[in-house]
């Protein structure tokens, strides 16, 4: 595995050199993890010149640190410098070191680095020219390799298992908060490092809301129940949402709304192919909901990339620029919420594949039929 | 309550005006919440000129948003501008608005704002001069008012309850992960919005480690078991750690180590008084552990402020500058870990009070006797 990280770093360095920088300082936590294999809290990665160096204030190999936890363990061949925490900011130490090694131009992640840290770096290394690396690492992360997709498959399977078990239990009378906590416990039971993001459970009027924070409302007969969860497996994050109806006979409006969101989600899934513009995927799903009169109720995007972060590039949104590639895992997650009544959200994690390989690979396989529980 | 937030904002604005800025842009999430009453994800607060304005991309009053969740609800009298999420960064919109209102100098939180956002603000408002506000809001937050201390008292009580219930259950054979999840469920059962930070449970060789990420190791006879948890109640975060011994008879070394850490923690608690330099509190606790030969094993600080964030100002550390005030809630949390054997951590949340008021108020009241479970 060490080779993988070294290859990622040399690809980044090549890009920097082309852009006129001899080295890059990576400070975004997921970016550090992607390139180093592990990222203890607060660590930064200096890529080039010569040996790459991970600078930390927490020992990534100590048994109490993030090394054995969800933050991962740095690649064996990577040099690690442990700074006494009193010595301050690893980014500043990295700037000093780069300047000392004769670097003239250092590329930094201006979208992660605060103004105060940037200034502190300039003040310890006044002759070092700081350039913007931009989202170069985020872009490198979009297309996943086999190991990454394997981790996402397991993360998706864990979420499917947790959800499946919940559906077998009695739901009426239980609160959103407790259902969410139980799902998170089950994720861990099935081998997740933790929840990929706070589990959302919405009942009745709260159903179908994106990012709904669970409350003490209890599940009642006749409710829609929508659940959105994901597992973190080796740092990789799956995402799934399903909506159910509680009781034996869904109301007319529930069946109709479910069918509309389902049709939109299917259209989005079917649009996933290498070469398809991001916004075409959004268009495919959004069009269905607009035709049903829900245009105003659809969120700003209908999906996003998943990987080491929960909502990473690409965004599947009307204004997004770019095209899908093979081996890009994304969500397709449209939802509609009718104020005061509730709503439907259906969300899958899929990997974009060429048609010759059978089209998009569905990772979250829980049924999308409207189940009455 | 609205008055409280308005008073906090006008105090900040006064400070800005003294420093030569006519307005301040607050972007640190806990700072926004402190001044606005609620901070939906990504929201920013423009304080002055004229009416203060909260700029959000998520509606803080919609029932699905953070408004009803742990992020709180903005004060009623505060003006709120909801930006379409496609319109981009609320900080950039705030810069445009400030420039449009005739502001010449805007104070910004350079320790929160990224270089990229700062540049985007300058590019939409090239004549607006951006000054550094520094940690002005963080400093304002150090001394708490009665409402804040009341919330912390409840947060501490909830953590005490969760911990007390765990101690009544069978522990041997259960994993660190499951104990941590159970504690977090109990926090919510007792009314917490959630855990204040990831609950840490360490058994045997993992005991006594600060921030240990729970593993699948099971509790065994003869183990030390150390637990660190906290509740989030209305945004305010308590913190408590206790260490127990599993089985009927602690070993000699366990009793000795426990006594040493307990003595250090007591010395730290007893040093809490208005006017005491932060580093004297650290010194008082650290001295005891140094005398016991554990100097190298003590962490970089022996306590920190608590409030809307978990580790906020002040830091009780050797190099910290400043003195305690009355009504400052802090932790006193020394610990010692012996590699391969385990260790002890004892942590309380207390509020600094003058001697005339009976000295420091202990919020986390779970016993600190060495319990054999």
Automatic annotation (TrEMBL), chains A, B:
Record keywords, A-Z: Aminopeptidase, Hydrolase, Protease
Record flagged with keyword NADP: no
Name the record gives this protein: Aminopeptidase P family protein
InterPro entries: Creatin/AminoP/Spt16_N, Creatinase/aminopeptidase-like, Creatinase_N, Pept_M24, Peptidase_M24B
Origin organism lineage: Bacteria, Bacillati, Actinomycetota, Actinomycetes, Kitasatosporales
Domain called Peptidase M24: residue spans: 151-353
Alphabetical list of PANTHER family matching this protein: AMINOPEPTIDASE, CYTOPLASMIC PEPTIDASE PEPQ-RELATED
Molecular-function GO terms, alphabetical: aminopeptidase activity
Domain of life: Bacteria
Domain Creatinase N-terminal per the UniProt entry, residue ranges: 8-143
